[in-house]
Amino acid sequence: MTGDILFQPGRVGSATLRNRLVRAGTSESMADPESGELTDSLLDLYAGLASGGIGAIITGHLYVEPRGKYARGQVGIHDDGVLPGLRELVGRVHEHGAVIFGQLAHAGSQSRVPGLTPLAPSPVPNPLTGQTVAGGTDQDIERALEAFAAAAKRAVAAGFDGVHIHAANGYLISEFGSPLTNTRNDNWGGDPTRRGEFARAVVEKVRASVPQGFPVTMKVGMFDAVAGGLGLEETLPRAAKLVAAGLDAIEVSCGLMDAPTDSANTYVAVGPKRAAEDLLLHRMIGSPRPEAYFRPYARALKAELDAKVILVGGMRSTSMMRDVIASGDADFVAMARPLIREPDLPAQIRQGREGLVDCTSCNLCLIHEGHHPLQCWRTPRIRLLQHAIYRLGGGFRRAEVIPTRH
Ligand SMILES: Cc1cc2nc3c(=O)[nH]c(=O)nc-3n(C[C@H](O)[C@H](O)[C@H](O)COP(=O)(O)O)c2cc1C
Ligand code: SF4
């Protein structure tokens, strides 16, 4: 389609994106389990995304220090040893004209790595893992901040076009931000301003570690999906402070989660016909779940802030993607699951593909995080059988990852 709003270039800081489509951070469970180094299959996955026409890729979350690792097979940016692999990754993506942001992350008490001593603001059970760890000392917190700074420097050295800080979905920065998981009464907690200090300090540290104009963006939990948690009255003023501290763009998501489906809603836009086609027999009755489910938060941010906004969560039809951009509710639309199933989706849309994407948001890919390399488990169909054999054989129970509570 000529003049398609989705294929107008856009800017984030000094980076120019060839279109408005972003691949949202999607952890791959494909790195070396010990060293966090990249593997050939992971490099191929990213080359495939870039050649599939996406404007920008946000990497899966990269752990900034060993105690901030989330799951087995996660890529690290915690050590100079990972630099050669990260450089190759960036090169493979640039070859195909996409830009790539490294996602800097610390899992907090949501870590699913057995035997690790994670970091948390307070000894409160993580809503997703149920894990309680000791509240961090000032020294632990300072070390984590330094780890973010060092990781940002590594991202620059590796040639990334920007860094994207993970401050959503219940990980460490979310935990500091929420009254449910941060019960401190010191510089890092006690009231809304002090609960926002850790996120602000991360942005400040990262900004000071990268060249001027280098894009720094953040995935922000604009509300907690856990009852009694954060809402817009606290997160909107906080987002304004984060932009003042140096963010170029905010990607909108939720904070603390009771279940992974809080950020990755199931069966988005899946009606009975699509359910039958994709063998989702239990969904043949029941209405489709809404698309673009975080859109009201993007709209609220756009109204308040002078920063680019990236909307993720349930973008499933070309009409919705265009409507989000045309309405001004967001500057970019990001997708995770649709691009697992169809890495070349942007190229298809550019060539005239209309309507719904193939992904039916069944979340089998999410359930296998930390267990198997990232892939769509519904196609080819044989993978559904492989999934069933693994599940019925007790694979998830025996696995070397701490399970989520749901
Ligand atoms: C398998 C899987 C892995 C994910 N890993 C990450 C991640 O590393 N970093 C992140 O910010 N979000 C991660 N997410 C969340 C997605 O970025 C996205 O916010 C969510 O899936 C909703 O978008 P979608 O409807 O386009 O999938 C992951 C989601 C899935 C399904
Ligand atoms: S397994 Fe496939 S269809 Fe199911 S959510 Fe993941 S990408 Fe979508």
Could you characterize what this model shows?
This protein has 406 residues and is of the alpha/beta class. The protein has one domain: Alpha-Beta Barrel (TIM Barrel), CATH 3.20.20.70. It is built from 15 helices and 10 strands. Strand 1 (10-12) and strand 2 form a beta hairpin. The longest helix has 21 residues, at 138-158. The protein starts with 9 loop residues before the first strand and ends in an 8-residue tail after the last helix. It binds flavin mononucleotide and iron/sulfur cluster. Residues 24-27, 60-61, 103, 166, 219, 253, 263-264, 312-315, 335-338, 365-366, 369, 374 line the site of flavin mononucleotide. The site of iron/sulfur cluster has 13 residues, from helix 11 and helix 13.
| CATH architecture heading | Alpha-Beta Barrel
How many strand segments? 10
How far is the first residue's CA from the last residue's CA? 43 Å
Order of helices and strands: EEEHEHEHEHHHEHEHHEHEHHHHH
Number of domains: 1
Q: Major sheet: order of its strands?
A: 3-4-5-6-7-8-9-10
